[in-house]
Amino acid sequence: MPSLHVAVLDEEFPYPLTSGKRIRSFQLLTRLAKRHRVTYIAHQNADSAELREAVTALRNHGIHVIPVEYRVPPKAGARFYGRLLGNLASPLPYSVATHASRAMQRAMDRLAAQDPPDLWHCEWTPYAQAMYRRPGRWVVMAHNVESVIWQRYTESESNPLKRWFLRQQWRKFEHFERWAYNAATRAVAVSAEDAERIELQFGVESVDVVDNGVDTAFFTPDSAVPREPHCMLFLGSLDWRPNLDAVRLLLDDIFPRVRAAEPRASLDIVGRKPPDSLRAELENREGVRLHADVPDVRLFLRRAGVLAVPLRIGGGSRLKILEALATGLPVVTTTVGVEGLRLTPGTHCTVADGPEGFSAALLDTMSDAGAARDQAAAGRARVLRDYDWAGLADRLDQVWQAAAATPLRQPATGPLLRALARR
Asked: Which of 6, 200, 227, 414 gives 20 to 30 Å between its CA and that of 176?
């Protein structure tokens, strides 16, 4: 197969590996950089030291890096709420409007003039906006079906005003995704379920699937580290709303029930960028420990007795479940949590919904360590078979090759994206 020049467009550079999206992007693209010329164009990471580290890591893997002189506005402070208010008048979802920058367009123009890519690759659905009215073949990577997440935000919100705003974002994302998936040369989902959603909901003829995965040589069991059977682990980025919702459910409803029935139970919350409010709340919370921005999560995965993933909101599929099973850690999750993964409830993991059922499942896992260990072993075997990054990189390579060989179409436009023309 021919070597391609692929230009990747993203919100930030995917390093350090502190979130599921970063892990996926880094693992797939560094592997494909051994076969193709990859140029990574991204807005600057919020942390300057992190940006320098990310640029070095990508260059060490042979990826040409183009940092864009723009930082996505933070989701905090008075200006954030002002931007939310202003977004009411925009046809674009907030996450699309705030990620559209003239600086990225100028960087793309320079690359197109000096070293034209064979293929553009949008590494998150909102970055499809960068391809508006731009000629060329391009792929969009749907880490989630964004409108599904916003629908679940809406349905779980009790405040009427917030629910009204969330509903507007949900509808805007539906319109935007319909344009993006149909305008792209090829659309890529992270699960067969998401691919089917995109095809049925947005009328896309065929959606490719490149699953999430795990570095099975890095995430391994370690018999030298004794497990703590009564230690529950929550793992995930704590600046992402679905994870904060799950943590809130754990702290308010699930952990108190487990602790009442099993006083030895403890909870480790491990994740990047926890909000100050969560830090303050957990300072003196008995039985709960917060571990922020840890460089390596394997110690926690190997020491815990069970991974708790009580997600009610989400899309795509959960890398943390794959990492847990790869280390031999039993998993208790929800129907939403296991969505998109080829895991059989009761065989590879335990699935329970609602605080009462989820708490009971955690207690069962703690009380029958042998059965939990056998289930985790079956889960590890499934992960080794289906979810190693090497095979998944091969799949994405096939998508790139097919997209690059597709006849050129006229750039897609539409009234929805008029706002992008004013970048």
From this structure: 6
What average pLDDT score do residues 13-36 get? 95
Range(s) for CATH 3.40.50.2000 in the chain? 5-213+388-422, 231-386
pLDDT for res 423: 47
Q: What is the pLDDT averaged over residues 190-214?
A: 95
Distances (CA, A) of 103 to 13, 39, 107, 121: 16, 16, 6, 18
Position 396 confidence tier, pLDDT thresholds 50, 70, 90: very high
Which homologous superfamily is 231-386 in? Glycogen Phosphorylase B; (3.40.50.2000)
CA 267 – CA 363 distance, rounded (Å): 13
Of 332, 339, 335, nearest to 305 (Cα)?
A: 332
At the topology level, CATH places domain 5-213+388-422 in: Rossmann fold (3.40.50)
pTM: 0.86
**Contact predicate 335/353, CB 8 Å:** yes
Average pLDDT over every residue of 379-385: 96
Q: Cα dist. 377→300, 348, 380 in Å? A: 18, 8, 5
Spatial distance between the Cα atoms of 157 and 135, rounded to a whole number of angstroms? 41
Using left for φ > 0, alpha for ψ between -120 and 50, and beta otherwise, residue 99 falls in alpha
The pLDDT tens digits for 353-374 are 999 999 999 999 999 999 999 9
Q: What is the dihedral of CA 9, 11, 12, 14, to 10 degrees?
A: -70
